[in-house]
Amino acid sequence: MHPEQGEVIYTEAQIRNRIKEIGAQLSSDYQGKDLVIIVILRGAVVFLADLTRCMDVNATIDFIVVTRYGYSDKPGQLKILKDLDYPIEGKHIIIVEDIVDEGLTLYYLKEALLLRKPASLKICALFDKPARRKVNVAPDYTGFSIPDRFIIGYGLDYKQKYRNLPYIAVLREDLLQ
Ligand code: IMP
Ligand code: MG
Question: So where are the chain's domains?
């Protein structure tokens, strides 16, 4: 059906169950606190929609769009294309992200947001590829830790396609060579 798709590695049910567990954990950790969920567009929106509906907390949601200048490891390489709409000073923040790969996006975003003096700042990522990390950043909440393979579906794209697949599949290996 999707010619560029390889093996399915997480089914819809597996993803749903894991997100329920993360939602319960977050609900307990942030009970009684005012929480701001920050979402990095676009890949994380599918995760956000399912995760927030499994959470029983007072939360507001804000969006940010960032880009990295090239693929350099130098500091200050993050550019904010669309900033948050609301201040975060004194607030408890969770950044919701689809996948942490080299880690540079989150590393620089975290640095930039900490300058705004939130009460706390944690990262919740549905997928983590620790083998590819270039900087010292790790999600505080992780859905699945995966090996170094390019995955598509459930918000994650290959050339902007496949975000709408309800499961996670690997991309056909030969397409990355
Ligand atoms: P990094 O951690 O700075 O390398 O950037 C992570 C971003 O790269 C994610 O938010 C995704 O947009 C993208 N990305 C990394 N690995 C994958 C993958 O396996 N499939 C789809 N997008 C990916
Ligand atoms: Mg992304």
Answer: 15-146
Architecture of domain 15-146: 3-Layer(aba) Sandwich (3.40)
Tell me how far apart the terminal alpha carbons of the chain are, to the nearest angstrom: 22
C-beta separation of 38 from 96 below 8 A: yes
Put simply, whether the predicted model's pTM sits higher than 0.85 gets the answer yes
In this predicted model, what pLDDT tens digit does every residue of 34-89 receive, in sequence order? Answer: 899 999 999 999 999 999 999 999 999 999 999 876 555 555 578 899 999 999 99
- Tell me the residues surrounding ligand 2 (ion) with CB < 5 Å: 43
Does ligand 1 come within 6 angstroms of the Cβ of 99?
yes
Q: In a mutational test of the pocket of ligand 1, which residue from 72, 78, 97, 99 has the highest number of ligand atoms less than 8 Å from its CB? A: 99
Residues 85-103: pLDDT tens digits? 999 999 999 999 999 999 9
